[in-house]
Structure to design on (693 residues):
């Protein structure tokens, strides 16, 4: 099962790089949806020796939410805003890719400092999680469209969940429910705000949001 | 039982307020909720009890201080909100009232949380409940502020989640355990936690919850949010919500202390504190918008709180006093600034002159709030800031003491320049810049808060002092 886990984790990283290097927003959303599905499958393979009902439910929940529901909401926002391309990045796509590669390296460097619990097989979960978090942050700070920023936020959350999956047996189910609900509510409220911004500003570019500054 | 009442009463009243059709009578639901909530909290304080429900929800001395503070501030804010919303009857206030009530529920859960996961969920809920409050004015500026608030706070809270996971990792490092992430259990076995993971958790939680508190450098949502939100929302965010963020950092400090890792935590807390004070000082000096000035003042006071938390001993005792005093004093400033904004219809310092003539009471309150918040005697903030200073001197942290005093002085000068030019001088002749005058409901709360800040500066009742000491004792503070 080890190689399936590695494969899924590599998919997660590739999705990040794809978002950093691609133009069409729709393709980026699809990449993040794929990332969500890979992430949803991970618990089944990461804890292969003890697949429980709990894990299966978690997996279904993650795939449904991160693979379909959230991307669906973003696609709806794109349709309403009649927007396909134009992400208005602050830095070029090639620069972003190079930075992304650097962040993967940084993720491995930080993970090397954090010891894995005794008895855990050596795995790339921790570096992948840290790199995904940092690449999500990179998307948030370098993309001008608020939809891209929301997408970056979902990537950031995906990174955090990649890490959380190591702990899934130790954390009570109550907390997982709360976490999933919070994300849903967060993106739902963000979605509403995006809609209002689109109506008020006639655009969903964060550069138009420049009334408030020092 | 009391716990569930405290959490559910605001939520149930939020449901009931859906049935009230009138924009004039609906805000009174806030007062009903506030009175019910604060009487239950007052009962807890009077009986000296520490209610608990299960292992996740339990009131300890630290939670009790914060619960008392948010309940009191919400009570003060509710009366003002009725007065404020009466002036804005043209605006639908259903979302506003419902959000405020859920906000109170969520903050109440934060104060009772003994579990890091639940604490995280509750703090995230406060962000979601407060976002619609910022958008009350439904214009481009408030929308922009709401977006920045949501995005920056969501990123912060996401990093706090990662920190929480790291904390669980540190705890479960040597194999699966019962009650992971539960504070009392974690403190009992803190010595066997994995140190590298605990350090990583500390950094992520400090940055994450620090964002919620508005510590520099992740304070950037604050000026926008406080600048655009109605005064009463700015007041509740700066007094009550930031206290919830502070409580989360207190929980973290408790764990670090139990694990014997304060040598790692202290310098980071002190650094964040001084950095926030420094950033506030720089931005207050050139400020042209008085509501944004208040936001930077909030950044400053959050800096003082983590600074005191990091120093330990007497300074930590001063910090708990300061938490209370800052919350009360922020009410005087934000609520009177709200009145001034309504009247002059401008947030620009250049256009607001002669407040003493136009709004004598609000002008006097704004002035008193300024004197109080900058830590001048005889107000209570002088006492708490001075206690933190004494703590620094007692530990021989001369560099920190010098920076602390320097920033306080710069902020005093910066705020004095702005506030004096507003309250004094000739009011503009232009009659269009003349909105509603002071009313009973919009001045009652700030007046009472000012009286409280003054009284606490002269005399701290023994029961309150005892509560402050018990809260401070949890994080290595003593008087």
């Amino acid at each position: 099962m080890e190689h399936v886990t590695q494969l899924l984790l590599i998919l997660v990283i590739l999705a990040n790089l794809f978002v950093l290097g691609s133009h069409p927003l729709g393709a980026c959303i699809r990449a993040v949806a794929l990332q969500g599905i890979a992430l949803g499958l991970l618990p089944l393979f990461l804890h292969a020796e003890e697949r429980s009902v709990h894990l299966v439910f978690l997996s279904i929940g993650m795939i449904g939410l991160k693979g379909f529901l959230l991307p669906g909401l973003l696609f709806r926002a794109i349709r309403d805003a009649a927007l396909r391309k134009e992400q208005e990045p602050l830095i070029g796509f090639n620069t972003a890719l190079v930075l992304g590669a650097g962040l993967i390296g940084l993720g491995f460097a930080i993970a090397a400092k954090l010891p894995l619990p005794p008895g855990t097989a050596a795995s790339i979960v921790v570096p992948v999680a840290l790199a995904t978090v940092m690449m999500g942050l990179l998307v948030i700070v370098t993309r001008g469209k608020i939809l891209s920023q929301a997408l970056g936020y979902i990537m950031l959350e995906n990174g955090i969940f990649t890490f959380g999956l190591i702990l899934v047996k130790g954390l009570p189910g109550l907390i997982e429910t709360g976490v999933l609900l919070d994300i849903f509510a967060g993106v739902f409220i963000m979605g509403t705000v995006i809609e209002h911004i689109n109506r008020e500003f006639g655009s969903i570019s964060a550069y138009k949001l420049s009334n408030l500054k020092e | 039982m009391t716990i569930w009442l405290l959490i559910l009463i605001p939520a149930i009243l939020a449901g009931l307020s859906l049935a009230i059709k009138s924009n004039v009578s609906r805000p009174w639901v806030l007062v009903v909720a506030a009175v019910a909530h604060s009487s239950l909290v007052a009962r807890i304080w009077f009986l000296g009890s520490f209610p608990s429900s299960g292992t996740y929800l339990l009131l300890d001395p630290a939670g009790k201080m914060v619960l008392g503070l948010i309940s009191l501030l919400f009570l003060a804010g509710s009366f003002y909100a009725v007065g404020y919303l009466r002036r804005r009857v043209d605006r639908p206030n259903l979302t506003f009232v419902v959000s405020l009530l859920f906000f109170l529920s969520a903050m109440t859960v934060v104060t009772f949380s003994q579990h890091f996961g639940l604490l995280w969920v509750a703090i995230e809920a406060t962000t979601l409940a407060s976002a619609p409050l910022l958008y009350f004015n439904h214009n481009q500026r408030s929308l922009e502020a709401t977006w920045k608030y949501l995005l920056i706070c969501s990123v912060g809270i996401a990093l706090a989640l990662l920190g929480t996971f790291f904390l669980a990792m540190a705890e479960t490092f040597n194999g699966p355990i019962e009650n992971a992430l539960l504070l009392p259990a974690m403190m009992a076995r803190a010595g066997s936690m994995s140190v590298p993971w605990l350090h990583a958790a500390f950094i992520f939680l400090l940055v994450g919850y620090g964002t919620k508190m508005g510590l520099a450098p992740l304070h950037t949502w604050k000026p926008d949010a406080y600048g655009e939100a109605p005064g009463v929302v700015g007041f509740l965010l700066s007094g009550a919500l930031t206290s919830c963020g502070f409580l989360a950092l207190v929980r973290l400090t408790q764990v670090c202390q139990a694990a014997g890792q304060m040598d790692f935590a202290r310098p980071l807390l002190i650094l964040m504190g001084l950095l926030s004070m420094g950033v506030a000082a720089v931005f207050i000096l050139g400020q042209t918008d008085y509501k944004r000035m208040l936001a930077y003042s909030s950044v400053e006071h959050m800096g003082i709180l983590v600074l005191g938390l990091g120093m330990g001993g007497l300074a930590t005792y001063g910090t708990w006093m300061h938490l209370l005093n800052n919350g009360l004093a922020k009410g005087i400033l934000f609520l009177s600034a709200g009145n001034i904004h309504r009247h002059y219809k401008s947030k620009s310092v250049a256009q607001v002159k002669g407040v003493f003539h136009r709004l004598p009471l609000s002008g006097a309150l704004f002035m008193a709030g300024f004197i109080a918040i900058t830590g001048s005697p005889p107000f209570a903030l002088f006492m708490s800031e001075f206690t933190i200073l004494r703590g620094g001197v007692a530990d021989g942290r001369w560099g920190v003491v010098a920076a602390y005093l320097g920033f306080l002085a710069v902020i005093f000068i910066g705020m004095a320049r702005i506030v004096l030019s507003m309250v004094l001088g000739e009011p503009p002749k232009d009659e269009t810049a003349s909105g509603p005058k002071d009313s009973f409901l919009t001045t009652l709360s700030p007046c009472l808060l000012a009286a409280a800040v003054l009284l606490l500066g002269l005399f701290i009742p023994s029961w309150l002092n005892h509560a402050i000491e018990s809260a401070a004792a949890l994080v290595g503070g003593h008087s």
